[in-house]
Design a protein that fits this description.
Layout (H helix, E strand, L loop, with lengths): L1 H12 L1 H10 L15 H18 L7 H16 L2 H4 L3 H25 L5 H44 L4 E2 L4 E7 L4 H18 L3 E8 L5 H16 L3 E5 L3 H9 L8 E3 L2 H8 L1
Parallel strand pairs: 2-3, 3-4, 4-5
Antiparallel strand pairs: 1-2
Helix pairs in contact: 2-3, 3-4, 4-7, 6-7, 8-9
């Protein structure tokens, strides 16, 4: 424990040197992203992030593993979502984690040279500790990066779905829902939820649902579109369906969906003219 404290103090005193030596030795011709940047602001931020890493990592010589990673977690998550690191291919980030690990091996050798009385077994123990904990840091960073990227993809998909099913307000409390492109089950569900919400929010009493931009839908999606028309009735919104292609009509018939109580027009122009 006494030696751990001495090593901790040694590394803490050299934390800035660790950062400067690391950045100076980056092979900038064979890397990419944040590590190849010459922008002074990016470089400054990168060095500060690296120094913060050292202040956290050095604590492994003082703290229990559970407390060590609990305190380390915010840094790991911050770097995983950092804009410059997100733009950097993951293999280059892992490479720099390994370069930093090798720095620690080198600094332990330096520390051991300053203290010849230290047994080889103790040095090997420190090597094993650094190897084990750095591997765990890398693993947790990869997990945090994946979690962040999945969150971004989900948010982007939700935005795309919202933009791909906009309710356009017309005159006299009328609205238009133009559906364009392929519709899968996930998007159909989003269309149902967004349309009901937007109609209620905007006080729309009659909605034109135009399918002329939809080339093909499967039976499940066709069922959900007709569910949308029924749900609109439940919230007091009348609907007119237009632009239904023969393939979609055939799918609806196969599902046993009745058109008797639905207002259906051949095209959008005809539907709007009727409501004037």
């Amino acid at each position: 424990m006494h030696r751990n404290q001495e090593l901790y103090n040694f590394l803490r005193e050299n934390s800035r040197n660790l950062t400067e030596e690391w950045h100076q030795n980056i092979d900038k011709e064979n890397t990419a992203g944040v590590y190849a940047s010459s922008d002074p602001d990016v470089v400054s931020a990168l060095k500060e992030q690296n120094h913060e890493f050292h202040l956290h990592f050095i604590e492994l010589f003082k703290k229990a593993e559970g407390e060590f990673f609990q305190d380390f977690k915010p840094w790991i998550e911050k770097i995983a979502s950092d804009g410059e690191h997100v733009k950097t291919p993951i293999q280059f980030v892992i490479k720099e984690f390994k370069n930093v690990r090798n720095q620690y091996f080198d600094y332990i050798r330096r520390f051991a040279q300053l203290h010849p009385e230290i047994a080889r077994e103790e040095v090997d123990f420190w090597y094993d500790t650094i190897l084990k904990e750095m591997d765990e840091v890398i693993l947790r960073f990869i997990e945090a990066t994946y979690k962040y990227s999945q969150g971004v993809l989900k948010a982007q998909q939700e935005t795309i779905n919202e933009l791909s099913a906009p309710v356009i307000s017309l005159t006299n409390r009328q609205g238009l829902l133009p559906l364009i492109g392929d519709i899968d089950t996930s998007r159909a569900k989003m269309i149902l939820e967004n349309t009901l919400h937007q109609c209620t929010q905007r006080g729309i009493q009659h909605l034109f649902v135009d399918l002329s931009g939809v080339a093909m839908i499967d039976t499940m999606v066709a069922h959900q579109i007709f569910q949308l028309l029924n749900a609109l009735k439940l919230i007091g919104v009348n609907a007119t369906l237009s632009g239904m292609r023969p393939e979609i009509a055939q799918t609806a018939v196969q599902l046993g969906i009745s058109f008797k109580k639905m207002d259906i027009k051949a095209n959008l122009a005809q539907a709007i003219d009727q409501r004037k």
